[in-house]
């Protein structure tokens, strides 16, 4: 029989750490959507360029999702998740350095989007399939509900936090790359936390 006790589900330390890591990476991804879109539109003033950057992330997310499922079946899930968050952290630090030194251009967002989308597609099945290995079957629905809640929370608060930080750090200068660069370093820190919790 299913148990809806949230505190009991979070009482399992392995699941709790996975959930904290998932919350961090969800916030990172949703903050990145705003930071990326903000800067691309500031640089190009083109809705079409913004669409191309979004596609560079979405296409590999769809194209490689089946391969991600195969990897989740054949490799240790913990290794996949940790590697994915570490790679995202490293790539985000590099992108943050490019942005904060004011050397960023449109194509940087294309390669970075493709990389992030690929990493997400290859690691998300492992993250979702890992939950049943960490928690009793009776708490699976509660665990899934907690994961959904963290995702929805990050979809609401992540973009708002990114927008606030960009405006605050840049002192209201919406064309500043400095504010976006700082936000990218914060995103990298969230990916790092997600990797460490694994």
Describe the model.
- The longest helix is centred in the N-terminal third of the chain and has 32 residues, at 13-44.
- It contains eight helices and no strands.
- It is 85% helix and 0% strand.
- It has 198 residues and is mostly helical.
- The mean pLDDT is 88.
- The relative contact order is 0.23.
- The protein starts with 5 loop residues before the first helix and ends with a helix.
- The radius of gyration is 18 Å and the shape is globular.
Number of helices: 8
- Principal-axes shape call: globular
Low-confidence stretches: none
Q: Radius of gyration in whole Å, from Cα?
A: 18 Å
Report how far the terminal alpha carbons are from each other: 29 Å
Main beta-sheet strand count, sense and barrel state: none
Residue share in helix:
over 70%
Helices and strands, in N-to-C order?
HHHHHHHH
Tell me the β content.
under 5%
Instruction: Indicate the mean pLDDT.
Output: 88
Number of strands: 0
Classify the secondary structure makeup into a structural class: mainly alpha
Regarding quaternary structure, what we see is single chain
